[in-house]
Write a structure and sequence with these properties.
By secondary structure, the chain is an alpha/beta fold. It is built from ten helices and 14 strands. Helix 1 crosses helix 9 and helix 5 packs across helix 10. The structure holds adenosine-5-diphosphoribose.
Length: about 325
């Protein structure tokens, strides 16, 4: 049996870290693609030279083209410009739409059966673009945001309570923007609702920090955006798919009526397995939570309409 093949497009901070983490988990062979000549080749070779020390057996190839990506099982798209201080994720839209369009065309031509995981921001709008350009079924086009947002929420709750993050279970739904929806009601610490452990006011501060989690790192780094947590979050999705784990994770998917959202890409809990999105998982939400998801989805819809309008002009 041959190893699965995972292509990672964009060999910058998020892409290279993703490739590294995929190799470290021996999830399959990795092809790292970037437009900068020599850079993906250099990073891939450097990672190949780590193999003997770690003892993992995977091939990591760097390239500036798409030949080597042919027949990929999963493709993680990270190519694009990252945020700078003062920029919102939405500010990246024109540049990253053009990049994601070009990349998706190339990827889809070489790997018509691949599952696409988008990481490029503004996330939900970029998943929309990749879905449209690839023509792939909705089960095979998704975005990584909810896993990262939930990881940030879990990290902050862990810091607050001084307990293992392994005990903390959380969902963050909605679009990957300032109006994302951390579900405090469904967030538990060793099975105990977090609302019983952290006073409401303090919890609201933690929710606020989660919403601004990406911006907090952009402000500190000054020249780029977060990459360790985004990369590991994408890799959790790759693993769930390739190992057919049927894991319930919050991912950006095309909602067609689920949670009261129609025909919009937005973060919802899904079951991830070898076929991609195998089910949109239904969680009973309060009216307030449903309303928040709807508002967040309407913001995504505006961005996608803007992309369509600009494309026509
Ligand atoms: N094809 C392939 N690679 C490209 C293309 C393209 N058309 N255009 C740009 N790239 C590459 C760049 O050369 C760069 O190496 O994408 C890489 C992006 O890497 P970084 O600048 O380090 O950005 P990174 O921090 O990895 O973020 C990438 O992920 O989290 C999001 O908001 C973030 O949209 C951004 C993306």
């Amino acid at each position: 049996m041959s190893r699965p093949k995972i292509s990672v497009i964009g060999a910058g901070n998020v892409g290279a870290t993703t490739a590294l983490m995929i190799a470290q988990q021996e999830l399959g062979d990795v092809v790292l693609v970037d437009i900068v000549e020599g850079m993906p080749q250099g990073k891939a070779l450097d990672m190949m030279e780590m193999n003997p020390v770690y003892g993992y057996d995977v091939n990591i190839t760097g390239t500036n083209g798409y030949e080597e990506t042919a027949g990929s099982d999963v493709v993680v798209i990270t190519s694009g410009i990252p945020r700078k201080p003062g920029m919102s994720r939405d500010d990246l839209i024109a540049t990253n739409t053009a990049i994601v369009t070009e990349v998706t065309k190339n990827v889809a031509a070489k790997s018509p059966n691949a599952i696409l995981i988008l990481v490029t921001n503004p996330l939900d709008a970029m998943v929309y673009v990749a879905h449209k350009v690839s023509g792939f079924p909705k089960e095979r086009v998704m975005g990584m945001a909810g896993v990262l947002d939930a990881a940030r929420f879990r990290a902050f709750i862990g810091m607050e309570l001084g307990v293992s993050v392994e005990n903390i279970h959380a969902f963050v739904l909605g679009g990957h923007g300032d109006d994302m929806v951390p579900l405090t009601r469904c967030t538990t610490v060793a099975g105990v609702p977090v609302t019983e452990l952290i006073p409401a006011e303090r919890l609201e501060e933690i929710v606020k920090r989660t919403r601004g989690g990406g911006g907090e790192i952009v402000a500190l780094l000054k020249t780029g955006s977060a990459f360790y947590a985004p990369a590991v979050s994408a890799v959790e999705m790759v693993e769930a798919i390739l190992r057919d784990k049927k894991k319930i994770l919050p991912c950006c998917v095309l909602a067609e009526g689920e949670y009261g959202v129609d025909n919009t890409f937005v973060g919802l809990p899904v079951k991830l397995g070898r076929k991609g999105i195998e089910e949109i998982f239904q969680v009973a939400l309060s009216d307030k939570e449903k309303e928040e998801i709807k508002i967040s989805a309407s913001h995504v819809k505006e961005l996608c309409d803007h992309i369509d309008k600009t494309a026509k002009n």
